[in-house]
Structure formats: structure tokens, C-alpha cells
Amino acid sequence: MKKNLLFIGIAVAGLLYSCATNPLTGKKTLNFVSNSELFPSSFQQYKTFLNENKVISGTADAKKVETVGIKIKTAAERYLASLGQTDYLNGYQWEYKLVESKDINAWCMPGGKIVVYSGILPVTKNDAGLATVMGHEVSHALANHGAQRMSASQLQTLGAAGVAVATGSQSAEKQQMWQQYYGIGSQVGVMLPFSRSHETEADKIGLILMAIAGYNPEEAISFWTRMSASSNGQAPAEMLSTHPSDATRIANLKAMVPEAKAVAAKFGVVFK
Questions:
Q1: Rounded to whole angstroms, how far apart are CA atoms 178 and 191?
Q2: Which Pfam families did the record assign (predicted)?
């Protein structure tokens, strides 16, 4: 029994890190979903969201979102071209919308569909703060994190089925117990760390993109410090969260800034 469950856990964890190599991270990633399958659904969901929410247009803030968004997009194109990946953005249909909401949030759907909530603007404060946010969210899309999460969820479900098969001869009570163990173990031991690794990847790529776009990556540290203050210490423990703790994230960013500046320097962008 224990050997069966261990095998299932190892198989699932192995699959999570054993697929195609992403050019932006240099890592093997899990992805069962192609862009040709994912993008049409993403675009339709984005259109539906915009129809159901208040899009702010014609204001200075809306223009700022578009301007910063275009600079981040251009930076992504230049960076990918430097990596020999000029076709990587095929199928992307970039949009940058400011939506009225008190939520301190922003997101980018697969294919380049971006939303910034107005509630985050007091925290971004300036163009560099906004570039931090948009660079981070665009990086999630570029690294195919959405497709990876979908694929990981499929594997988690497959693992649960494996547990059911492995424990099928036991009592219903024990079967339920093993499913609970598997659910907690796979979530805390695999899925949540998987999600936190995505956040760190998006931070790193986002720093590079904002730097290539001309925004000092050190401003990302200031932004996340403000974000930390805005949460009033309400974040869950890191091991139970999809995101790194604020302290971990800020420490990581400080370590990442020199590399982001070095990459930007190759594009002729130098910061004092």
C-alpha cells in the first residue's frame, strides 16, 4: 500500500517537471494544453468579463495602463527575439484594459489579454509600479502558467484515481482516509509549491521585462513593500499559500535586480 502511494506521488511530481522546456525560464514545464486550444477560450472569457464589468476609458489612468502595457509587450518581443524565439508570440492578441474595482489586483489571460483594476493604482503610484504589476502578470502568460496549472490539476485528479485503485480492497473508511491524506499531501506538498514557483518565475521575468522597457527594476521592491503594507498582515502562512510571503518575495526581488539590470544593459538600457 505505502509503496503504491509513494509511486503515485513520485509519478505525479515527476510529470509536473518533465515536459517541454520554456525558453523564458530554461526549465522543463508541464503543459498538456496547446495555445490553439487555450487562446480561443481565453479571448472569449476576456470579452465576457469586459461586457460584465465597467471598463474605464478616455482617462489619464486608462491611457497610462495602455502605454505601460505596450512598453511591456514591446520588451517581451525584444527579449524573445534575443533568445531566438521570434515566433513565440504567434497568436497573441494584446489588450490592456483598466476596470473599475476596489480590488487590489491585475491579471493577464493566456494570449495577452490584460486587466488592471483601478483599486491597485493607489498602490502602484507611478509608471514603474504599474510596470511591475503588468510585467509580472504578462510573465505568467508568457511562461504558460495557466496551462501548467490546468495540466497539474488534471494530474492531481489522476493521482486521486490511482489512490482509489490502490485502496479499492480496503474498507470505505480507510479509502476515505487515504484520499484525505493524498488530497492534503498533494496540495501542500506539490500543488501549492508549484504555484509559488510560478509566482517567483513571474517576478523574475517581470523584472527583466520592466527593465528592458526602461523602468528601474528596483522600483519593484518599493511596490511590493507597499503591497505588503496594504495587506495589514492578513496573508496566510507561506506553506499554505499559492504565493510566497511578502518577506520572501521582497528578498527574492532584491537578489534578482542585478540580473534584470544586466539583461537590460544588453538592450542599451542602463540605470544609475
A1: 18
A2: Peptidase_M48 (PF01435)
Distance separating alpha carbons of residues 137 and 68, to the nearest angstrom: 13
Nearest Cα neighbor of 98 from 40, 140, 44, 58 is 58
Residues sharing a CB contact under 8 Å with residue 34, sequence separation 6 or more, in sequence order: none
The whole model's pTM is what?
Answer: 0.77
| Residue in this structure with the C-alpha cell 524565439, named with its chain if needed | 85
**What's the length of the chain?**
272
Geometric angle at alpha carbon 180, from 178 and 183, rounded to 5°: 110
How many beta carbons lie within 10 A of that of residue 159, not counting itself? 22
**Residue 234, helix vs strand vs coil:** coil
Rounded Cα distance, 101 and 117, in Å: 5
pLDDT digits (tens, 9 = 90+) for 137-185: 999 889 876 656 665 565 556 666 666 677 777 777 766 776 665 555 5
pLDDT tens for each residue of 135-149 = 999 998 898 766 566
Q: Tell me which long-range contacts 116-125 makes (C-beta under 8 A, separation of at least 24).
A: 116/65, 118/56, 118/61, 121/61, 123/223, 123/226, 123/227, 123/230, 124/223, 125/223, 125/226
Q: Which residues are catalytic?
A: 137
Long-range pairs for 118-124: beta carbons < 8 A, 24 or more residues apart: 118/56, 118/61, 121/61, 123/223, 123/226, 123/227, 123/230, 124/223
Percent of the chain with pLDDT over 90: 53
More confident residue, 188 or 202: 202
